[in-house]
C-alpha cells in the first residue's frame, strides 16, 4: 500500500516520470551503498534485534509521511529524504530477517521455507494494491501510508516472540575490520563459480526489467489513460501472478532445477514486459502484468533458495545482503534510467530497448547454466548442506 501510495503521490505532486523514478530510486538505492555494511554487521550481531530496530525505523518513517501528507505539509524534497531513510533501514532489515530463516527451520525444510517467505510477501503484494486503490480514490494517500506504519508497529511488537536457534540468531565474533569482512564477502561471491554468475545475471535483469514495476503511475495514465483504481488493479495482477508462482514453488519444496528456473524466468519476464508495453488494451495489459509477476517470482525465489542453501554459514549474511542489494538497488538504477529516458522519448521505446537487452543477457545466462547448476545443485553441494 505504501509503495503504491507514494508513487501516486509523487505523480500527483509533479506530473513527472523523472520524479517518480527519483522517489523510487531514493527508496531502493541505499541498498547499493548500505547493503555490504548491513550484511557484514548482520554476520556479527544479534540478528533478531537488528531486524526489530530497522523495522521500527521504517514504521516511524511511514508515520511521518502520513502525517505530513494529512496536514498538507508534504513537499517532494521531504518525500525524497524520507524514502531515502526508509530505504536505508530496509537495507539493514533484509539480511537480518533472511538470515534468521535458517534458525527457524531445519535444512531439509529450508527450500520450502524460502518459497513460503516469498509467498507471504507476494500475498501482501496482491492484497495491498487491491486495498490501496479504493483507499486512495476515496480518502487520499495518507490513510494508505498510515496502514504501513501500523503494520510495521505490529512487526516490531511480535518479532521478539520468534524462537530462533541461537547459532543462527547471533553472528560470529569479529574476525577482521568491518571493511575487511565486506571485502572478504565480495571475494567469496566473486570467486564462487555458481553464486557469482547467478547473482550477476540477477543484477542485470533487475536493472533492465524490474524497474518497469516502479514506473506504473505514469504508465497507467500516459500509456493506458486510466487512474488510481486501474493502478491498483494492475499492481494486484503483478501480485496474483507472483502468488501463483510462489504457491507452485512452495509445493515443489526442493532446490533441484532451481538454476534452470532462475535463468528461464528472465526470458519469460522480458517477453511478458514486451507484451505489456506493446499494447494499449488494458485487459491484455493486466494479463501481461500477471505473467511478469509470475516470472519475477520464479526468478527471485529460485535465486534466493540457491543462495540460502549454497552460501557458507559464516558468509550467509553477506551473501543475502548482496541479494538484497540486487533486489533494491538494481531496480532503483533502472527506474532512474527509465524515468530520465521517459521524459525525452516516452516510456514505450526505452522499455522495449531494455527488454531487447534482457534477451541478450538471457542468452549469456543460458550458456552458463550448466556450470552454475553443477556448483549449486551438484552432489557435493548436497553433501555440504547435510
UniProtKB/TrEMBL annotation:
Keyword Cell membrane: yes
Pfam families reported in the protein's UniProt record: MFS_3 (PF05977)
CDD domains referenced in this protein's UniProt entry, alphabetically: MFS_MefA_like
Coiled-coil spans in chain: none
Transmembrane feature ranges: 17-38, 50-70, 136-159, 231-249, 261-278, 347-366
Keyword entries, A-Z: Cell membrane, Membrane, Transmembrane, Transmembrane helix, Transport
Domain of life: Bacteria
Main localization, broad class: membrane
Intracellular or extracellular location(s): Cell membrane
Membrane topology: Multi-pass membrane protein
Protein name (Swiss-Prot/TrEMBL): MFS transporter
Amino acid at each position: 500500500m505504501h509503495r503504491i501510495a507514494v508513487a501516486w503521490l509523487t505523480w500527483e505532486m509533479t506530473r513527472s516520470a523523472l520524479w517518480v523514478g527519483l522517489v523510487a530510486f531514493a527508496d531502493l538505492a541505499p541498498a547499493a551503498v548500505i547493503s555490504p555494511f548491513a550484511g557484514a554487521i548482520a554476520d556479527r550481531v544479534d540478528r533478531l534485534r537488528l531486524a526489530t530496530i530497522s523495522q521500527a525505523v521504517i514504521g516511524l518513517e511511514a508515520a511521518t509521511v502520513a502525517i505530513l501528507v494529512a496536514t498538507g505539509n508534504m513537499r517532494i524534497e521531504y518525500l525524497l529524504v524520507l524514502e531515502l531513510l526508509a530505504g536505508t533501514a530496509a537495507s539493514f532489515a533484509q539480511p537480518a530477517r533472511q538470515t534468521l530463516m535458517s534458525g527457524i527451520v531445519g535444512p531439509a525444510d529450508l527450500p520450502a521455507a524460502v518459497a513460503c517467505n516469498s509467498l507471504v510477501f507476494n500475498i501482501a503484494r496482491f492484497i495491498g494494491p487491491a486495498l490501496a486503490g479504493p483507499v486512495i480514490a476515496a480518502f487520499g494517500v495518507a490513510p494508505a501510508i498510515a496502514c504501513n506504519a501500523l503494520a510495521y508497529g505490529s512487526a516490531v511488537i511480535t518479532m521478539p516472540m520468534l524462537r530462533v536457534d541461537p547459532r543462527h540468531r547471533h553472528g560470529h565474533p569479529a574476525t577482521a575490520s568491518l571493511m575487511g569482512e565486506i571485502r572478504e564477502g565480495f571475494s567469496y561471491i566473486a570467486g564462487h563459480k555458481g553464486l557469482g554468475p547467478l547473482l550477476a545475471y540477477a543484477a542485470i535483469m533487475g536493472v533492465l526489467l524490474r524497474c518497469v514495476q516502479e514506473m506504473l503511475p505514469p504508465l497507467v495514465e500516459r500509456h493506458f489513460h486510466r487512474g488510481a483504481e486501474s493502478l491498483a488493479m494492475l499492481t494486484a495482477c503483478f501480485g496474483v501472478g507472483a502468488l501463483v508462482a510462489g504457491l507452485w514453488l512452495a509445493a515443489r519444496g526442493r532446490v533441484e532445477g532451481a538454476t534452470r528456473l532462475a535463468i528461464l524466468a528472465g526470458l519469460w519476464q522480458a517477453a511478458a514486459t514486451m507484451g505489456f508495453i506493446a499494447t494499449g488494451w488494458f485487459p491484455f495489459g493486466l494479463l501481461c502484468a500477471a505473467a511478469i509477476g509470475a516470472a519475477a517470482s520464479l526468478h527471485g525465489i529460485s535465486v534466493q533458495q540457491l543462495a540460502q542453501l549454497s552460501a557458507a554459514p559464516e558468509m550467509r549474511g553477506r551473501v543475502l545482503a548482496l541479494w538484497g542489494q540486487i533486489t533494491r538497488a538494481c531496480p532503483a538504477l533502472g527506474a532512474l534510467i527509465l524515468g530520465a529516458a521517459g521524459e525525452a522519448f516516452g516510456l514505450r521505446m526505452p522499455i522495449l530497448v531494455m527488454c531487447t537487452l534482457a534477451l541478450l543477457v538471457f542468452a549469456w545466462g543460458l550458456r552458463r547454466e550448466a556450470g552454475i547448476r553443477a556448483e549449486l545443485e551438484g552432489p557435493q553441494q548436497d553433501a555440504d548442506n547435510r
